[in-house]
Design goal:
- The protein has helices at 14-35, 53-65, 77-94, 104-112; strands at 43-45, 49-51.
- It is mainly alpha-helical.
- The protein folds into two domains: 1-36, no CATH class; 43-112, no CATH class.
- The protein has a two-stranded antiparallel sheet.
- A hairpin with a 3-residue loop joins β1 (43-45) and β2 (49-51).
- α2 packs antiparallel against α3 (77-94).
Length: 117
Amino acid sequence: MENRKITNPKTWKKADFAALVFLILVVSFFGYYVFGPKNGCEVARPGYKCETAWNVMAEHCLYWGNWSCDSSRDVSLPQVEWYISNLCKIHNEYHDNKLDCTNLKEACNVVTGKQIC
């Protein structure tokens, strides 16, 4: 076995360059796979199932509507309202039919297609 410095690229052989290129390609592939676009996966459900922000927001709006959209009526409702607000922002980021996220009651009425608030 010959004595060569791996830190000096002048002493590298073709196999060393090939290994480096392969490593760069593998890291790039997995990096894109992990951090790349998710093709419409706006909200992740348990089990890594994708769902649109509109559908998840509609579910939460229906739950919030059970209390007439009054967050003071149950301790869990401020968290639900916060989540609806974030889902509204996510929806507006990805779609052209923008919702008014400053008026969540009206946004919930639009999303559910009914007068729930």
